[in-house]
Automatic annotation (TrEMBL):
Residue ranges, annotated region (Disordered): 59-130
Name assigned to this protein: Uncharacterized protein
Biased composition regions of type Basic and acidic residues, renumbered to the chain: 76-100, 109-122
Length: 130
């Protein structure tokens, strides 16, 4: 039998019941051909019968659940697909004031520094007289 961890898709029940029925028919025909019609079903045949019973029971349960009323348009409208935002802990004023922004130079300061560097590079450096 299959592992029952994952939910079984409803659409696959018809094919699975059909495949189980074919396997059960082959097992019964094999038993009748070898041991006769009066012999008791084998363990494999009993397992197939049990699996078929469970499949039909699960199919009926799914069909009954499908007949129940689903969510209304209002329920769908109210329901949100996005989780609620988590509340962030508020930082104290002291911690906020303690943070200092990085010192950043303005565009004018950067240009002035660059111009000064270019001027210094153009002027020949005077060597001290000996």
């Amino acid at each position: 039998m299959r592992n029952r961890q994952m939910p079984t898709r409803t659409a696959s029940f018809t094919k699975r019941i059909s495949a189980n029925g074919q396997a059960l028919h082959r097992a019964m025909a094999r038993r009748i051909a070898t041991e006769g019609a009066d012999a008791a079903p084998s363990a494999a045949e009993a397992a197939l019968i049990e699996e078929r019973r469970l499949l039909k029971k699960e199919r009926d349960k799914r069909k009954a659940r499908a007949l129940l009323p689903g969510p209304s348009a209002l329920d769908r409208l109210v329901r949100t697909h996005h989780p609620e935002a988590k509340a962030k802990p508020k930082a104290s004023k002291e911690a906020h004031e303690a943070k200092k922004p990085k010192p950043r130079r303005t565009r004018a300061e950067k240009h002035a520094e660059k111009t000064a560097a270019l001027e210094a590079a153009r002027r020949p450096s005077k060597k001290p007289a000996k």
